Amino acid sequence: MNTDERSTKRFSVVARTRMAVALVVAGCLALVGLAVTGQASTPAGLEFVQVGHWVYNDAAQSAFHVDGSTNRVDARANVPGAESGSQVVQGDDSGYVVERNRITEFDKATLSVEESTPPPAPETPFVLEIAGGPYLVYRNAGQIVRLGDPTATVPAGGPLSRPVATLDGTVWVHRVDNGSICELPKGAAVLTCTAHLPPSHGGGLTLVGDRPVVLDTTGDSLHRVGLDGLGEALPLGIKLSPSAQVATSAVGDRLAIADPERNQLHLIDISGLDQDRPSAKPISVELTKGSRFNGPVSSSNVFAMVDETRGEVLTYDMAGKLKSTVKVPGQAAAARLAKGEDNRIYVDSSDGSHVLVVNGEDGTVLDVDVDKAANSQTAGAPPATPQPPSGDEPPPRQPQRTQQQQPSPNTQKAIPPVARATPPGAPKKVSATAGDGSIKVSWSPASDNGARITAYRVTWTGGSTRVAGSARGTTVSGLTNGTPYVITVIAENSAGVGVGASAKAVVPAPANRPAAAPAVTANAGADGKVSVSWTQPDLRGGTLVHYLVSATGKGERELSARSTEFTGVTGTATVTVRAVTKFGSGAALTGAAGSRKVTVPVASGPPTITITQVKGKDGSLIVSVIADGKGAPATCQAEFFAKTKPVACSGATNLIISEVAWAGSITITASIKTSAGTATDSWRGVPTVGGGPLLWLGPMALVGLRRRKDKEVL
């Protein structure tokens, strides 16, 4: 290596060293400048975790900041005129007092009111304080308002269950009307729906390992939510009521599900979602019977709930052990639970007089008296006698604001802009009516979201079709009768494809084909009673609603059974039976009539009976009679020391006397009975066997003979 090369190399090393030193010095100077001025721009893409919690105090008409690490109030912003029970949410630079009819923004640095805007719906929203937010989710109206940059109002197309959000700022929502599971990434203005719960299934969302999971309360199972839909079901091992609420996230391998209707808190083992091993049995904790609960909300190690009836905050660990029970000061009936980004759970009393801070590590609960702080603190100033936090760091210095007139909180501005030229919302009032091999579907227009709707896509299992954007219905043909179909309608515009809405399942069937006639059987007695039964006819693809059954002079009945009885019938009557059926949601159809004529017998006179023969066989006597009821139903009996059971008789009839013995000549009596009276006949002689008389004597005969002799002597 020559001298020039060595000199060049040495200069390069020295230059690099001096440059590194210069950069360090420059960095230190920048930090000193930051410490002196307190101002610096935030690097792009850098996110800060929001520490603490804001609450609105009704009495002081102010928003107060509670530092969860020190359990004290350290800032106050005057926001007069807000309604009682208002929520306060925070973003990176601003806080927002959220009322049902107004959102008031204040600057977190100057603690002065900036402006007020109207919300998209007059309801109390669900709040998410996350990266890119905060977000206000108006669940009933199906609207998602992002107060962060860029502001936007994103329509969901229908009502929503409780949302969740992942650490990257993605909001996940569940449409309760059609089961869609949709995501709104950070900064996006359009929902993307990647999965659906089965039709008519209820559920809710939670997070497991910062990934969305849906709880199916109808199927009693958990499913991962992926790009290709719902993952395999993880059975819960318990039966849930439809009103069960799942925690915002899992704690370790346990997910809390509160079921107040059944007075239970369940801790479900969710390890089976990602690991090929069986789940452990659920842990169930008894809740106070009859109480109304808010929650559960989860932190890293504990779950928290509010018993609104008893006015208590309850915290549990992942094993179901009760960690603490603390009364909520003030009006506990409307106490509000909020999960902070600092791994604490905050419980606001309804008037904002107190905030209970739940330690996310051990479940301990501490009370922060906001009323007391309000009486000793002016707007923007720290408490009169602040207690320094633990450690060597001084208490946080509050930014001072210049004395200036605050803008009126009633100052109105336009609502955060609705995203323009985005895919349309879901069609409304989607309904379907079954026909013969077809389904007629109709809907109301979807929200166009800033771009004209160009088409509606109608889909079903096995096919789809597109119709014009001005259409409000169509008929789907070529379907299989007897097969259920779910019809889904999706709107399209120049920005893309919107969220679908589905009608209830319907079953195509041949139109106007009522059921066939049933086969009817009817029997009448002399007492005017008519018994009727019938077979189920060919329903021709319809669903049986009921039967219409009538008899002459007795009106019509609606029955689901296939037999009935009429009384007080006289003469000849006609009994008629018809099946009423229905196809899907169509009108009921009355089928063909099956009928039977029946005559109620009338006796022409008293009955008669004649014994024609008595035979003996296998220890029994067979008494042959001629019975004549004179046109009326009759019953006959035979007697030899005891009477036989009555049996129906007409004409030549055999009456059987079982398990008897006799000797020589005996006496048999036979009787007949109808509605017109009774008659008897007696026979005396020796029963025959094979054509001749039989003399047989046994113990039973001796007893019978002895008794008869006793009677003759008397």
DSSP strand count: 57
Low-confidence stretches: 1-48, 381-415, 691-714
Number of domains: 4
| Beta-strand residue percentage | 35-45%
Q: For this structure, what is the CATH class of the largest domain?
A: Mainly Beta
CATH domain topology of the largest domain? Methylamine Dehydrogenase, Chain H
Query: What sort of overall outline do the alpha carbons produce when their principal axes are compared?
Result: elongated
Q: What integer is the average pLDDT?
A: 81
Number of helices: 3
CATH superfamily (homologous) name of the largest domain: YVTN repeat-like/Quinoprotein amine dehydrogenase
> What fraction, in percent, of the residue positions are helical?
under 10%
Largest sheet: 5 strands, antiparallel
Structural class: mainly beta
The Rg value, from CA coordinates, equals 44 Å
Ordered list of secondary-structure elements with their pairings:
Elements: H1 3-37, E1 53-57, E2 62-67, E3 72-78, E4 87-90, E5 94-98, E6 103-107, E7 113-117, E8 126-128, E9 135-138, E10 143-146, E11 152-155, E12 164-165, E13 171-174, E14 180-184, E15 192-196, E16 203-208, E17 211-216, E18 221-226, E19 229-230, E20 234-235, E21 245-246, E22 254-259, E23 264-269, E24 283-286, E25 293-298, E26 302-307, E27 312-317, E28 322-327, E29 336-339, E30 345-348, E31 354-358, E32 365-369, H2 370-375, E33 428-434, E34 439-444, E35 453-460, E36 463-468, E37 473-476, E38 488-493, E39 496-497, E40 501-502, E41 520-524, E42 530-534, E43 543-551, E44 556-559, E45 563-566, E46 572-582, E47 589-599, E48 608-617, E49 620-628, E50 635-640, E51 642-643, E52 647-648, E53 651-657, E54 666-674, E55 677-685, E56 688-689, E57 692-693, H3 699-713
Antiparallel strand pairs: 1-2, 2-3, 4-5, 5-6, 6-7, 8-9, 9-10, 10-11, 12-13, 13-14, 14-15, 16-17, 17-18, 18-19, 18-20, 21-22, 22-23, 23-24, 25-26, 26-27, 27-28, 29-30, 30-31, 31-32, 33-34, 34-37, 35-36, 35-38, 38-39, 38-40, 41-42, 42-45, 43-44, 43-46, 46-47, 48-49, 49-53, 50-51, 50-52, 50-54, ...
